[in-house]
Amino acid sequence: MIDSVESSLKCPLPLRTYQRVMMAHGGGGRMMRELIEGMIIPLFDNSILNEKDDSAVIEINGAKLAFTTDSYVVNPLFFPGGDIGELAVNGTVNDLSMSGAAPLFLSAGFIIEEGFEFEILRKIVLSMRRAADTAGVQLVTGDTKVVERSRGDGIYINTAGIGVIKHSLKITPGSVQPGDAIIINGDIGRHGIAVMSAREGLEFETTIESDCAPLNKIVKKLIDSGIEIHCMRDLTRGGLGSSLVEIAETAGFRLEIEEHSILIDEQVSAACEILGLDPLYIANEGRFIAFIPLNDAEKAVNIMRNDDSGRSAVIIGRVSGEKTKIVSQKCISGAHRIIDMPSGEQLPRIC
Amino acid sequence: MIDSVESSLKCPLPLRTYQRVMMAHGGGGRMMRELIEGMIIPLFDNSILNEKDDSAVIEINGAKLAFTTDSYVVNPLFFPGGDIGELAVNGTVNDLSMSGAAPLFLSAGFIIEEGFEFEILRKIVLSMRRAADTAGVQLVTGDTKVVERSRGDGIYINTAGIGVIKHSLKITPGSVQPGDAIIINGDIGRHGIAVMSAREGLEFETTIESDCAPLNKIVKKLIDSGIEIHCMRDLTRGGLGSSLVEIAETAGFRLEIEEHSILIDEQVSAACEILGLDPLYIANEGRFIAFIPLNDAEKAVNIMRNDDSGRSAVIIGRVSGEKTKIVSQKCISGAHRIIDMPSGEQLPRIC
Predict the structure, then answer these.
(1) Which residues constitute the domain of residue A110?
(2) ipTM of the shown complex
(3) Is B49 in CB contact (< 8 Å) with chain A?
């Protein structure tokens, strides 16, 4: 079995052109996808991992569960609107939520650099507890490792999470249908710009705060309403742009979005202009898109607007019947632009 | 609720005497315990985490599950008898097994240092796959992060795992009873010395290989036999000595072990003598102790000896009725020695 696994690596993937791992391989873009799809998934090769969703859906003794993990290496550890602890809880809560699971239990693995201040560790752990309380999850198991100075960067946190799936929907890119509306729960780009500003010491007229937030409650409302959700995706590394491209490629259809519908805060927009960044590819930590049958789309938007995490929810586009697997954006000018996936993240280590 | 959490930190724990995290805080000894019990557990404060077992036991929709996590930062990544990938799978498989769970699903979170060679990554991932196949578990979800040079050390791997508990035993230090036999499944000290030798370039007459192995199959045989297992613990960071002390302190009884029963390979013993290390505190990755009612002890030893992971299983001691919470060792000389827990690990970063 292993031999066949090894030989499956011999396919001429672009990965083979790199000898070493580069920052972009962790950036949520095409290079990361090549690493994961070109090496890691083929080597493990099982039907659950092959689904390539943010959460694995598993069944144990009749209970249908979602299981996911993420490591957090954000730099700096504290930024406007959040910190690594809050991020580590919300990120995993959100990955579970995107499969429609109700998150229940989290684990935490800390890799701490020698010399890290206890007072900062205490703040981060407290922040995790607060975030867990807000999301209604329990952190039930953990691990602590310490590495020598300059073998880490303060602290890295891994969280894994388990949620329970009580609905019978199959919420995955493969369920996306022509005609589906694409809905987003708010403006984009806050998290990446907030982290970037803190890291580079940039100052704007008002502070741009991360959108870091748990999405399990807004998702529960959507599911409880009986709406047939086809797909959900949180817009983290790689941003809205990369998520759309990934879904288009897996679903097999063309996605069409409208620039004028996509909300971007003025400060975020100004920051992007100064820094030469495209807000479409900037990471968010409390934003997601949902693919919903057109006749339920308005209902879904209203449900989202009635939740704190979705006050400015809006339809940004639709799924076309064309099987071209591309994402096109109708710009405000009227022109059409093809949205591609970047190689890596414009801003590394934002989560 | 948070206020009470904060105030719970004001207790005068020894932790407060440190301003910064030291290597020993990750070493599996008393300082790590102080960090976890003095800060992390009080801040999260829930009944499952408060159990302080290696795995959390959780119930979802009637299914009784074990959930655990560990990060692996071993240095070097490859050592005689194993590598970080095999360790990351077996370590989490074993943590689940110690609660009597049958391990089913794992997650993997990779934190990779920029510049890490793809070829080495491929070897490690392949090793994880092999270990997963051997243990009969599936790796179903993962995450990859990349950090800049000198912000990591090649690769760190976190695994979390889920197992199912099908028995009705309560396998935990609190179940230990006076009269219980303490059984170990083999000799001690191999893993720590194997890693240490690789790291420091030490050479011995024959190569000392790590005992790294999955323990789920031997544990399944014990459970299936109907023996009333009271407690199990794998002897990783801190070794046999620290595990015994931890169990004595939680169980509330005195544990008595006999030096002559504890097997130590001659090469391991020689290495310990040269390096000034005590084999009792050296980490193992395929050794565990089981607390079994005396009348089932011989049966348990025989079951273990019939499994590859327990060929030289032996009773090393018993639980006394004395409520002194100490561990005493009857030495070969006839003298008695009190076994205490070290502050940290004698050899950092061995897992």
Answers:
(1) 55-166
(2) 0.94
(3) yes
